[in-house]
Design goal:
Chain lengths: 246, 166
Amino acid sequence: MTDDDLRDRMRRADPAASLRPLPDEEVRRLVAGAALDAPAAPRFSSRRLPVLVGAAAAVAVVAGVLVLSGGDSEQAPRPDVALPTSAQPGLENGSGLPDTSGGRPATSAPPSPGTSTSQVPTTTATSSEGRKTTVAVLTEGPADPNVRCRQPEAAVLAEAQMAFEATVLKVEGDVVTLRVHRAWTGEADVVEVRNATGSPVLLGFEPEIGRRYLVAAKDLKVMGCGYSGLDEPALRAVYDEAFPQR
Amino acid sequence: MEPRQTGFDAVAQALIDPLRRYLARRTDAATADDVLSETLLVAWRRRDDMPAEPLAWAYAVARNCLANAERSRRRQDRLLVRIWQLARPPEHVPARDDPDPGLAMALARLSSADAELVRLWAWEELAPAEIAQVVGMSANAVSIRLHRARRKLKSLLDEQAEGERP
């Protein structure tokens, strides 16, 4: 009996030979669950969460590669709003980031003209395997209750530097953590949204653990007015149209 | 356009089926599901350690998670395990639906470490350097042990074949 004969015989007796591949949706759910504290997390939680808020919420992208141009300096977060995410109690475990590099600023993002890098704490750290970890902090302008939003338009959304689908992993105090699954533009593994105001709305974005959202950000601001919201076919179609295959 | 997958998702999704097969070969379905979730969780937490070719690394994570699950179960059911060990028949008895009982019996006569090397070689189709990464040995040591284990397994199978001849 040769080695090949032996391997053939073992393959014929492979207990996993009849194992069928998992459906894509189940695979995605499993991977999303990996970032939850409890590995076998339910797909949806019935727990309703406080709605986050508009003015001056900050989004911190704590892993992956994200390239953002600078934002309006008036809207840029104050240094105390910037989130060194690994320092947030409870976040380090959820994100799984190592204490040595997770979320801590290392270098500044390239600023766009007229933007002060000190007010744009977009940061990058590179892991040993060459993958980058980037932290970016985004803010959004105060929502004007008198402004009526029009239907989202692809041309407007196309200006976003960051557009992704993500599942809400957890809400702790004023920080919402989202797990990014796919990105039309920009790249991240985890996004953290901080509500710095205590006001109860984040541009109509109601973070519910386990639910999937589409989120866009432009000039360090989360895009509201219907551009970020539940992952629904109508909104997804706008994302698909805004970011055609290049 | 279709959104592209971000780093960890893309890698982890590609690992799921190999990990499911790895676990299905080594434990029952319920434990395999639990250990798969645990393996993905650990992989996520340690994703900065994940090498560019992550498969053997992922098997090593799964192997540790499976060992932990089994240790935990042993701790919880210590008494039952003791009874099971006392009642355990001295010879390996293959499952009724085992497609090749002779092979299962021969594998059971190898040391568990040697049998695992052969499984990783035949079922996971890993090279000695990859097996070394999974089991935490040097590639050289794996090559030597794997060679001996295969030789012993073939000899056991030959013995069986001899015994079955009229």
